[in-house]
Amino acid sequence: MNPRHLFTATLLALALAGCGKTEESPADSAATQAPADPNLVTAPPTLAGQLKTAPVATAPVSEPLRVVGRIDFDEQRVARIGANVTGRVTELMALPGQQVQAGAVLAQLNSAELGTAQLALLKARAQRELAGKAVERAKLLLAADVIGSAELQRRENELGVAAVEERAAADALRVMGVSAGAIAHTASTGAITSVSSIVSTVTGVVVERKVNKGQVVQPAEALFTVADLSRVWVIAQVPEVQIGRVQAGQTVRIEVPSNGVEPIVGKITWVADIVNPETRTVMVRTEVDNPKRHLRPAMLANLVIEPLPIDRLVVPASAVVREDNDDRVFVRTEGDRYRLTPVKLGEEIGGVRIVQSGLSGGETIVTDGAFHLNNERKRAEMEGQ
Q1: What is the tens place of the pLDDT at every residue in 108-164?
Q2: Distances 347 to 39, 355, 364 between C-alpha atoms, Å
Q3: Which of 157, 203, 276, 322 is at 20 to 30 A from 90, Cα to Cα?
Q4: Sign of dihedral through CA atoms 303, 304, 309, 313?
């Protein structure tokens, strides 16, 4: 080949090779870098001045304590009533659900034991009257110097014993439920009756009856339960580890799902002094009015107790951002840069939320303006796509 032609071909090859080589652009260089963190955001100057920040710290918080309880009788307003003597029931006057007054007759029974006790009273009374007459005669005989003073003293002692026996017989009748008027009537007229009445000792509702006509009953048996339901107790069991935060006088909100009434606000009136060894719980009690009788004994209830405050790590409720159904806060990293950080929080209490995890304390977070900062983060993320 001609040397001139060879040189020209070489220059042409070099030129073509130079045309195929291009310089790396800034866009290509950026493409090789790591992707930006979508949770990091830089607050623009227009927004940075509006943001409020504060360090995460502890504060005294009264975290509500939720326990399950039940409605119960007010034990000062309930009576479990039985017969005062052994006998057979002849009449029933009260039915479950019936309103009765104190002193109302619930049932009647026939008792031979009652008749025997009345007879004993009459015998003791007759013996006391006889002993009294003997004393009067002894005084006359002593005055006539027929007997000595020792005989008068003996008869006076017999009168004292007879009087004691009469009082004992009357007391036995009172224990059997016989009124003072009925005892006086028996003593004065000598009339004996074997009919005994079972009487209500309180005003209220007959909530239970455990007797039927013709049944033989004993004094130890509870035959009727009568309760005044205008006021009831609410009993709950507080775990042993939480009882240190509970004391009498604290406010409690009572929710009874089964009756559909509005929650009732009351006060804790009593905290037990012992721990149940089986459940490791301590019983607490509150008392509430029940004028419409919506609250029925044995109903389940939910109690929300406001216990003593304790120091807990908290963040303001205004600092929380909901993102992907999770709670998050903006933590300052440096300058005006913030990171959206996931946290686990408790319920809102007095404008703050208790930190359960995600923060250790001391971090600087956005307390006001977090919503706008999150919008800025989303805008930057969309522009970067």
Answers
A1: 999 988 888 889 988 989 998 998 998 888 888 888 878 888 888 998 898 899 999
A2: 25, 10, 21
A3: 203
A4: positive
The reported pTM is 0.64
pLDDT 10s digits, 166-206: 899 999 888 888 878 888 888 888 888 888 889 999 999 99
* Type of residue at 220: A
pLDDT value at position 204? 93
Note the pLDDT of residue 283: 96
Other Cβ atoms closer than 10 A to 65? 19
Spatial contact of 48 and 351, defined as CB atoms under 8 Å apart: no
Listed in sequence order, the residues at least 6 apart from 345 whose beta carbon sits closer than 8 Å to its beta carbon are 315, 320, 327, 353, 354, 355, 356
Residue 246 · residue 284 · CB < 8 Å: yes
Whether the Cβ atoms of residue 109 and residue 198 lie closer than 8 Å to each other: yes
Predicted local confidence at residue 26, as pLDDT: 46
| Per-residue pLDDT band at 384 (split at 50, 70, 90) | low
